[in-house]
Amino acid sequence: MGLADLNPGVVAAAALETPGADVRKSLQDLLQMDIDGLVIATPTALHAEQSIAALQSNVAVFCQKPLGRSEAETRAVVDAARRADRLLAVDMTYRHVRGIEKIKNMIAAGEIGEVYAMDLVFHNAYGPDKPWYYDPKLAGGGCVIDLGIHLIDMAMWMSGSKVSGVSSRLFAQGKRVRPEDERLEDYAAVRLDLESGTTANVACSWHLPAGRDAVIRASFYGTKGGLAVTNVNGSFYDFLTEHFAGTARKTVDEPPDAWGGRAVVAWAERLAESAAFDPAIESAADVARVIDAIYEREK
Length: 299
Fold this sequence. Notes:
- With about 300 residues, the protein is of the alpha/beta class.
- It has nine helices and 14 strands.
- Strand 1, helix 1 and strand 2 form a beta-alpha-beta unit.
- Helix 3 runs parallel beside helix 4, helix 4 runs antiparallel to helix 9 and helix 7 crosses helix 9.
- The longest helix has 17 residues.
């Protein structure tokens, strides 16, 4: 196992948690080792370049979200993985919350009928703690690319459908953000129309005065009932999952659930079986296309 980081303090701390790891000075040093896979947890602006470098070295990649700052960057990484025939995955961590997995299975089984509406919310009362998140060139966007990406991914993953229409309003400190502005949004309200006919309302923010640390909720409404997962008491980690029938509700899942590392474990298990390209990663480019539309970026 190898470790590398430009910050000596960070890599030293990581080395203490992984006894026996070989500490290297750079990504290129890591890629010269005999490794099967690479986990990338660097600032967003580096994700595409570093992922492509690893894939071109025939190394499988697990990358923190987003895979790129735009659809073009994301597509370049996916294409590199396909050409190299190497496994590529992105840390869409909320897919692995136990209650959300149960909702996915219940929707697939038709337990709430045909889903026609989704309400998806992620408000973080604090916002990112690293300066680069607030630099448009480094981050690629504000709360949408940081938090909304999970909600957009969930809408398409749950429905098994791509997005056919997007409308959005972005705000920075209460003022409307226009595409030509240099400011990053700290609040976003988005409507997604899916090819399946479902409509998803998405809201996300940084530094919202919501009276708690976080508001995280995903609600799904169908012709036979509803399902929702909601964070408990403002927690970033604890979730309650419920099944609705009219005014009645039933608990489907509740804490505790140690879901934090499941995404990378799932990637590692998949890698142990095969390092070959997985077409499921195409969804990352689909999500990036929607984010570009929200930002009204020119192609």
